[in-house]
Amino acid sequence: MQITTEEYQLFRPLLFSLGYRMLGSVAETEDLIQETFLKAYQLREDTIQNKKAYLCKMMTNLCLDLLKSARYKREHYVGPWNPEPLLLEKLHAFDPSEMIIQKEGLSIAYLRMMEHLTPDERAVLLLREALDLTYSEISAIIEKKEENCRKVFSRAKKKIALAEGESLNYEKNKSMITRFIQAFQTQNMDDLLDLLSENVTLYSDGGGKVHAAIHPIVSVPKVLALLYGVIKKAPDDFYFEVKSVNCQPAIIIYMNGKLQSILSFDIRKEKINEIYITMNPQKLPIV
């Protein structure tokens, strides 16, 4: 199948949107995109009626295969698993069609909720909501009856219903995170208690590669104790900045001359409900 440069630039963001939401991994998504295009090049042109649909089907099936084979690996991951943070400015070859990957459903909180779904549930939900495909189109991609696809979608929506309350107002969330940083630096407990939910939970992902909490940390005192403990041990060249990660404001921390961790937040009802610290070097982008 022949794919022009224009078609490649058109379809690649689409495949990335699908793959990253399915896998929560930039590196794995990039690998499967290349595999999808390589397989497509080997197909006869006259056997393909709709290039977009066929590429989506190939990408979806590759993601499903990887998810099913990776289950054992994910179950034996050391400590909490956070999706790989996505810094859009570090991705290449995205023109205005990049907008497709900037829709809702990219936040770390949402992608963590996706882990509660089976591979098939994840695929149907994304094809329906992220790519706005019809049940007929979804049926052709995952090779299940339309009625089955509707049932899978309904089941998936119920499982991730908790994620629907997440605030995605970027500027409002950025203001809250700025307040959190100021309150944290000045140890203003009144402000911290106002910003953090009573049962705020921190998920620290080191993947066994670096020192990190292997269990979720729950409650305001315990979360703050851990964060202050990290800062107390920080080297002199420690610094941070607030940047857009997964289309939401996040804190990027640098130590020893390199990116050390990324803090992402789940904000609901004007409270920080969850904090995700990703420290696994294999998940951190090169900046």
TrEMBL record:
GO terms for biological process: DNA-templated transcription initiation. Residues 8-71 form the RNA polymerase sigma-70 region domain. GO terms for molecular function: DNA binding; sigma factor activity. This is RNA polymerase sigma-70 factor. Interacts transiently with the RNA polymerase catalytic core formed by RpoA, RpoB, RpoC and RpoZ (2 alpha, 1 beta, 1 beta' and 1 omega subunit) to form the RNA polymerase holoenzyme that can initiate transcription. SUPFAM superfamilies: NTF2-like, Sigma2 domain of RNA polymerase sigma factors, Sigma3 and sigma4 domains of RNA polymerase sigma factors. InterPro entries: ECF_Sigma-70_Domain (IPR052704), NTF2-like_dom_sf (IPR032710), RNA_pol_sigma-70_dom (IPR014284), RNA_pol_sigma-70_ECF (IPR014303), RNA_pol_sigma70_r2 (IPR007627), RNA_pol_sigma70_r4_t2 (IPR013249), RNA_pol_sigma_r2 (IPR013325), RNA_pol_sigma_r3/r4-like (IPR013324). Residues 109-160 form the RNA polymerase sigma factor 70 region 4 type domain.
